[in-house]
Amino acid sequence: MSDAAFDEVIHAPNRLQICSLLATVDAMEFSVVRQALNVSDSVLSKHVKVLQAAGYASVTKVRGSSYPRTWLALTSEGRQALAGHIAELRRIVEMAEADQ
């Protein structure tokens, strides 16, 4: 279990959704992630680049029979950061619920 820690890189809504989608699989095709988030190629690319720069995501281009395909995956660092971020969000929610 990762230590609870708020992560500014992951917290942006689109990046949190990207990480959450990728956490459930080994890798996911770029177009599937784009459709799930309902964003353009450029918006997804921008967020993936931020995740890559942080060491949280990897991008692999595979030459298919008809066209190249791009696959996205969370790195082990990305999985740990996401787990820590989710743990911190849960801690924050629990504080709010305790006050009610």
Notes on the structure:
The protein is of the alpha+beta class. Helix content is 58%, strand content 16%. It contains five helices and three strands. It has helices spanning 8-11, 13-22, 30-37, 41-53, 76-98; strands at 28-29, 57-63, 68-74.
The low-confidence runs, each spanning 5 or more residues with pLDDT under 50, are none
Radius of gyration: 15 Å
Structural class: alpha+beta
Q: Record the strand order, biggest sheet.
A: 1-3-2
Q: What gross morphology would you assign? A: elongated
Strand content: 15-25%
Number of strands: 3
Helix content: 55-70%
- What does the average pLDDT come to? 93
Order of helices and strands: HHEHHEEH
End-to-end gap? 28 Å
Q: How many helical elements?
A: 5
Largest sheet: 3 strands, antiparallel
Quick overview:
The chain is an alpha+beta fold.
Could you outline the blueprint of secondary structure elements for this entry?
Layout: H1 8-11, H2 13-22, E1 28-29, H3 30-37, H4 41-53, E2 57-63, E3 68-74, H5 76-98
Antiparallel strand pairs: 1-3, 2-3
Q: Which features characterize this protein?
A:
100 residues, elongated, 58% helix, single chain, alpha+beta, 3-stranded antiparallel β-sheet
